[in-house]
Amino acid sequence: MKSDRRDALRLAQLLRAGELTPVWVPGEGDEALRDLVRARESAKRDLGRARQELTSFLLRHSISAPKGTKRWSRMILR
């Protein structure tokens, strides 16, 4: 059963005992940076999936990179 009175009493006891730890609320700048990091990670994941799909497609059609080149090098991407 939910009881705000019981919760308030317990919080007061914890505060008096020094058991509560402070929390940090991020500001707008911090949230913007977090959003940017999340977007970058998502884009990297999408790129990896797209590369895997393209590699699989090319392998299914027996198309491979020329000898002496790496799969995703600048030379191949041109």
UniProtKB/TrEMBL annotation:
Residues 2-60 form the Transposase IS110-like N-terminal domain. Pfam families: DEDD_Tnp_IS110. InterPro entries: Transp_IS110-like_N. It comes from the Bacteria. This is Transposase. It comes from Carboxydichorda subterranea.
